[in-house]
Structures are given as C-alpha cells and as structure tokens.
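Box S1 | Example of a co-folding query
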Amino acid sequence: MGYVEDVKEAVNFVEKQIERTPKVAVVLGSGLGGIKDAVEVSSKVKYSDIPHFPNSTAPGHAGEMIFGKWNGVDVVLMNGRFHYYEGYSMKEITMPIRVFQLLGVKYLFLTNAAGGLNHSFEPGHPMIITDHINFMGDNPLVGKNVDEWGVRFPDMSHAYDPELIKLAEEAAKELTIEYYKGVYIAFSGPNFETPAELKMARYFGADAVGMSTVPEVIVANHGGLRVLGISSITDRAIPEGLEPLTGEEVIKIAEKTGKKIAMIFEKVIDKLER
Ligand code: HPA
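Box S1 (continued) | Returned holo structure for hypoxanthine
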C-alpha cells in the first residue's frame, strides 16, 4: 500500500476515536509538553495504535495525540513530534499534518525549541515565526503530487498566516509577555551547528535556528491549513564565542517558556471565529 492509502487508514482510525473534529492542531516541541496542561482532555490516542504512524523517539517527546477543549474550542495536541534526524523520511514526519488536514482541522499551531541567532534575543522568551528557510536539504512534497491534497507548486508567500501573527502579537502585548518576531531556519541536525554554519544562517537572514517545524509548515501550506509558529528561544546561537550546548539544556529552558507560549495560544484561540 502506498502513502495515500496509509494516511487514509490512519485518518479512519483516528476518526473512530473522537466525537468532534478539532478546529486547531497544536504541535508540542522539545520541552514544551507542559502546554497540554491548559487543555481539558477528552481522549488520547497513542501513536503506536495508529496504523502506519511513526513512533516518537526524541527526548522530551511523548507519543500521543490528545483531544480536548481549549477555551471551549475543539483542539488536538501532538504530544511529541517526529524529527528528520530520527531517521524518518519527510513524508513520515509530516504524516500527522496530513491526518489533521483530512480530519478537517483548519489551524495548525507549531512550537519548537530554537537557538537565537539574533544578537538581541535572550533565552527564555518566545519568538513568533514570521517566515522560514528550509535548509534541511529535503522536502516532504518531493515525489508525485497528490492533487486531492494540494497543488504541485504551492505558494509560500505567506507561509505563516499574517492574521494569526497579528493575533499572537496582540495576545503577547495584552499579557505583557516579552516576545520577538523573526525568521526560523531549519537544519537537519542532530548535531548542533558549527560557528561557521551559524554565521552563514545569520547572513541568510535567520533569527532563530532549529531542527523541526519547516517540513510540517510546508505540508500545512500545501494542504490549506492556516499556520502559527512560535519558537522558544533556548540558547544563544551566536557564532562568536559560542558556548557548548546540550540537548538537556535546551529542554530545561524550553520548559520555562512553555507557559508563556500556552498563554499566547489561549488568547489567539479565543479570538478565532467560532
Ligand atoms: N540549534 C539547533 N537546534 C536548536 C538549537 C540550536 O542552537 N537550540 C535549540 N534547538
């Protein structure tokens, strides 16, 4: 069986487990699982039970979809995402996004832990993603286009929905949460970048660097979902005098930012048309 059939089987399985179609899907990044505490949970579906679904192996990532209500709005949380560096293909890591699209989800909110390339960025604050650079060397849309899912050459002029960016900014201001705005660049990982690579990324115009999100945003745009992305800036990715970094440090700082990102999402959800 091919990918299209696999996705459809996964959708059929998930549909049987839920009462209502979620309106918003939220992907929880490294160390950002705490966001789920804001949601009134109605059911959980383990990735390992979903036909053809990959399993999440990255540290700080559980492996389940959580369905429930957030501020009265039906949501689904991806508690644990898939990364390219885990050895999965681009199609595998974006399978959840296709499942959301076919379920009828309208909005995709993504989070991640990212290094701050911008000199003015301090760790511990959220960055609202305005645009991205795909530097992963691969693309989930490579291969025969599935016309019923989207067009061959999807537009990416507004990959991150301007209206949602505006709502997120308003929310952060109302909550007096210090935030940044900027461009996210994704490397494949799993190693953190060398100083030379970070310097290049900065010259390219990126403000934050990480190892996820971009494939999911490409598929969401192809499939017509409206995207909001927020990074947790966990460290300074400044090439001059770069400090050694560990995955544990990233997760520790991300955990502290999760609450702020959850508060911003909550306000944005409240402002979506019902
Ligand atoms: N580089 C890549 N990924 C990251 C970083 C980084 O500096 N920080 C958190 N995730």
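The CA atoms of residues 193 and 238 lie 10 Å apart. Residues 247-271 form the longest helix (25 residues).
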